[in-house]
DNA-binding transcriptional regulator, LysR family (Aquamicrobium aerolatum DSM 21857), 322 residues
Amino acid sequence: MRRTLPSTGALACFEAAFRLNSVSAAADELNLTQSAVSRRILSLEELLGKPLFQREHRRLIPEPAAIRYAREVERILGELETATSRFIAERDDVGLLTVAMPPTFGSRCLIPKLNDFIAQHQGIDINFVSKIRPFDFEQEKIDVAIYLGHAKWPGAHLNFLTDDYVLPVCSPEFLANNSITDAKDVMKCQLLHHTTQPNLWKNWCLAHEIEATDFKTGPRFEFFSHVIGAAMAGVGIALISDLLIQKELRNGELVVPLGTRMKCEEAYYFAFPPRSAEDVNVQKFGAWLKHVFAQPAARRTSRPAASAQLPSGTRESQPVTD
């Protein structure tokens, strides 16, 4: 039985023309002539037995069914491109491991230690991608992930790495201009927020047994790198995972006004799909991560700090951060 399979060239021309709303723009992107793009779209229409566009002068108006088709084609071409790139990158003597990680954690905590892993495992190439939320391993071309959240990820195994602690931090100049002697004084200052953890300051108030009604005020940022930057610029006080600000604490760019840190209910985990449980490269990377997180000197600032435990039953609405 003959399969109804359009050529990838025709699909690429259709997708580009749909996305750019122009045959000429599609031709420029694909490095083809306008007539070549038009011919391939016409051949696709002949195969499908129906038009994809209404052509009015030089305008392309997609048919309703073509809009849905274009979205599917875009997804399929993207997956094909990814699979091809992975195949080209893989060699018989090298294993390619694609690792998803929160971007700020990756740049500040993992990448500085990467030379150690490369030196120990020269037969493994690492491909890093940024993810700030759980995803479906069956739908993504990702082998493993580093995850901050509760011990629950449908369709994935989770191996505990380490607990997470947050510290109230600000710039030295901000502290010099604000009198902070207890937790109530912190609530009088401008607070900085991370949008995926909207209840973090509320939980901090509960952990320190203070009542506060204005913990929701203050600027909000999508990425922790932006929260850190705002704190360093003296915009306000932020609650930041101490894993992410070791350098700033050491060099004095950030200070801890109260010296107290809060243990979060969320923790760091090594996540991977069931199909990868016996993968040697996955096991090696997971073992290396466990070793990295087991080093106390790399985990905590040397400054002594009392710990505040998050009250039982208190949960943050978004457990995954960047």
